[in-house]
Amino acid sequence: MKGLKKVTSYILITFVLLITVISLLGIWDIISLEDVMRKIFTSLFIIFIASVIVLFIFSVLIRDSDSNKD
């Protein structure tokens, strides 16, 4: 459990640093911030939907098959 928290912390720190760099590049007009943010939010939405489906599969389908064995 401790290792999972550590890995999650490092992933969140990486996301914060990445978003900070992208925001700074957008502020200085090096990149088009609107296009990048649209792509980031679209990607995050797709990842969210996929994780909801996986969570549903684990919580409903796999749990039901485990409870039938008892």
Quickly describe the structure.
This protein is mostly helical. It has helices at residues 2-27, 33-69.
Percent range for helical residues?
Answer: over 70%
Q: Report mean pLDDT, rounded to a whole number.
A: 84
Low-confidence stretches are none
Radius of gyration: 18 Å
Q: How many beta strands in the DSSP annotation? A: 0
- What percent strand? under 5%
Spell out the helices and strands N to C.
HH
Structural class, by secondary structure, is: mainly alpha
Which helices and strands occur, and which strands form pairs?
Layout: H1 2-27, H2 33-69
Tell me what you see in this structure.
It is built from 2 helices and no strands. With 70 residues, the chain is an all-alpha fold. The longest helix is centred in the C-terminal third of the chain and has 37 residues, at 33-69.
Question: How would you describe this structure in keywords?
Answer:
single chain; 70 residues; mainly alpha; 90% helix; 0% strand
